[in-house]
């Protein structure tokens, strides 16, 4: 087999495997709300106007649009993890600029973060958490009676969503691009050899 073709296939395979591994490392189900609804999540409290919307996603086509009419709404999910192991919890949040608003995040019964009067423009928030049980509850308590808080790309993984995972994604893309280059180079050399042998 042509040397460039072997290199191309190897790089392309490693890149695709790396990218699929990064995407798969999330203990939150439907964390990007790409089902178009709240599948795998539980809504409670004041959820009259809470919905999954295509108006302002961070990535993909959808995000959770969290609004209320009179009180506090709750969005929660029971996860399956290894107790006493450290994890990284991350999520992206923005708003439509409406005030006042609030968002309180808890995990395994403990408060993780509390926000008041969030502004527009997606921001990532990440926290290291250690569950004490195998099925901890991740919960977002929200209030916004005049607009929406948009939540997207909720993730719980064993590595950070900021430097490490993004680096892996970049490496995966580079390997994939290297694979494409190797395959094209191999085809070019094969074509050149064929033309040369025809004379």
UniProtKB/TrEMBL annotation:
The keyword Electron transport does not apply. The chain crosses the membrane at residues 165-183. It comes from the Bacteria. Gene3D superfamilies: Galactose-binding domain-like (2.60.120.260). GO terms for molecular function: hydrolase activity, acting on glycosyl bonds. The keyword Transmembrane helix applies. Residues 1-24 form the signal peptide. InterPro entries: CenC_carb-bd, Galactose-bd-like_sf. Residues 25-105 form the CBM-cenC domain. SUPFAM superfamilies: Galactose-binding domain-like. Keywords: Hydrolase, Membrane, Signal, Transmembrane, Transmembrane helix. This is Carbohydrate binding domain. It comes from Chthonomonas calidirosea (strain DSM 23976 / ICMP 18418 / T49). The lineage of its organism: Bacteria, Bacillati, Armatimonadota, Chthonomonadia, Chthonomonadales.
